[in-house]
Amino acid sequence: CFLFSAPVVISSLTVLTIRYKRRWDIIYICPFSGAVKGKVLITNYRLYFKSSDADVTVTLDVPLGAISRVEKMGGASSRGENSYGLDITCKDMRNLRFALKQEGHSRRDIFDLLFRHAFPLSHGLLLFAYVTQEKYEENGWNVYKPIEEFRRQGLPNNKWRITFINKNYELCDTYPTVLAVPFKSKEEDLRRVAAFRSRGRIPVLSWIHRENQAVIVRCSQPLVGMSGKRNKDDERYLDLIREANDTIKLTIYDARPNVNAVANKATGGGYEGDEYQNAELMFLDIQNIHVMRESLKKLKDIVYPNVEESHWLSSLESTHWLEHVKLVLSGAIQVADKVSSGNSVVVHCSDGWDRTAQLTSLAMLMLDSHYRTLRGFQVLIEKEWISFGHKFASRIGHGDKNHADQDRSPIFVQFIDCVWQMTKQFPTAFEFNERLLLTILDHLYSCRFGTFLYNCESARDQHEVRSKTVSLWSLVNSKMDIYLNPFYTPESGRVLYPVASMRHLELWVTYYIRWNPRIRQQQQSPVEQRYKELLALRDEYLKKLEELQLSDSSPSSRLANSPTPNTSSSTSSPSQQYTHLHTPF
What we know:
By secondary structure, this protein is an alpha+beta fold. Among the domains are: 11-125, Pleckstrin-homology domain (PH domain)/Phosphotyrosine-binding domain (PTB) (PH-domain like, Roll); 140-191 and 283-341 and 351-526, no CATH class. Helix content is 37%, strand content 13%. It is built from 21 helices and 14 strands. The strands form three sheets. It has a seven-stranded antiparallel sheet, with helices on one face. Strands 10-11-14-12-13 form a five-stranded mixed sheet. A hairpin with a 3-residue loop joins strand 2 and strand 3 (46-51). The protein is globular and about 75 Å long. The chain starts with 11 loop residues before the first helix and ends in a 7-residue tail after the last helix. Pfam families: GRAM, Myotub-related. It is found in: Cell membrane; Cell projection, Filopodium; Cell projection, Ruffle; Cytoplasm, Myofibril, Sarcomere. It is an enzyme of class 3 (hydrolase). Belongs to the protein-tyrosine phosphatase family. Non-receptor class myotubularin subfamily.
């Protein structure tokens, strides 16, 4: 078998990590090929294994950031074959097991090195993104500029204004510094509303429909509590949102199941009741982070290392993963449909940084074709996920050894899965391809870039992420052609409504089961393959043309090609004429 991570171009990265290089002879207990002898190389960024057996080729390339847990296997009294070594649990749907000889203390050395560099924050070390010296032509941190994105949407206008009340993160420490709020609201109104919303996450505009002026507004739950507290300022503020485009009834989408929202009253939270006049409340029944974490664990159990094909459908159903994907997509469709028909909506869950981000970003992807472009999708992630405080550090656990932390959850992975489902149903609507989605998820864990580090903008400012680390978009935009969808057809006004039924949803095999060489992954379509071959042929011709032009411009070439007296153009050689030809590419 041949196991590999997504292709990664490394130049300065290799030079940098070589300082921490250590190599050992080891046995990899491959779940597909059995025990395989080889050498393992460990740097401060990756674990790299290559088999030494002539008849079996196995390669492993694992960024240390993708490691969730490292455990010692067996003890001094272990006598069974390959019973002494290391168990490594990864965040990217695979586990690794290595066997070592007991003499020489090599296990202790490998364990210490892995534990130290896989969990740098637990050892007082810097995350790898602060150590790498990669350079790119484009600065990916400039991809998203809030004011420019609001202007693209047609803001500010006579109904919505831009406020900098949060410029020092005093109103809400998990919100961005630039916010769009109703034009009629005053700064003091915003402060009073913040006091009644969980974590101070007030309702703010995410997106506005250019034609009907309906908006998607996001926030956290109101602090109603068991006593049913009211806040006139919050009620009036939501009415200002409704009035901005004369929506008859403002629809409030609460992502939670009804029973969960009621239970949250016991901890001071809750939901909008009948006191919010001219508003309707709808629950979307999306489960919390703990349910999603357990669901993905069950999925991992059935896809790695072995897939039981005889019970596959029932096993997949028992994980409930696709059922959760369906509910998230279904909720986003309801949001998009309501806005498309001219009605403004408010979206929230408990704190407004998990399910809320899923719903707003997916609805915006359905409504706005700009977010379906390669750069637009980067803006969408930066805006709705990163700037609005999805807790990446807590949900992923970057550099943290506490693998059992109850804050860990695959919320962002689930969002990318939903995007993939949409690309399958609308293969010509997205400028980017599956490779982009895989690259994003690989670097969600890798810690090679600063893009997904920390929980919110204020924390990123404190740790100087933009000045001391490289953005993932610097990598992506340096070689955009490999992330482009050859079938993309721009359609600016088209709203996408995916079918969110179990019959139309698929398990994303090329992500969840990519480590299993025995699963026949979906092959590239012949048309796409031929398209790529033609692109490669074009590049080859262009390279030859460039070489010919360079040779033609050299002094010796000019001398050789200069016409001699009494020589007419009709007698010029074929090679001389060739330099003036233009390729149709």
